[in-house]
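Need tokens for this chain, all 122 residues.
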Amino acid sequence: MKGKLLIIDDDPRNIFALAATLKAKGFQCLSALSAEEGIAFMKHDKAIRVVLLDMMMPEMDGYEALGVIRADKELAGLTVVAVTAQAMVGDREKCLEAGADNYVSKPIDVDKLLKIITPHVA
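Here are the structure tokens for all 122 residues:
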């Protein structure tokens, strides 16, 4: 079994679709409906290797969550992939500048996502 992935997205349908796809590929998936819940999971489950972080969420968005993750010495080394429906010029750079390790836009290209995450969870 591969390392764990944490999917943080405020839309349960997005989580369901992404988790089903990744589980079919042999990945263990956890999910959180908010950044706060996701950060709590990261602090308590040291088997999490990759975080798929939706950037547009209410309360704490992905940019703010990245700041919290990168400022926490226990979490700072996690691989965080920004996931966003925003695919405008400059959005990728904005996510990377905020601390994301990589970026994928919705709808997610599963093959591209697998190339990004596999080295970190294999």
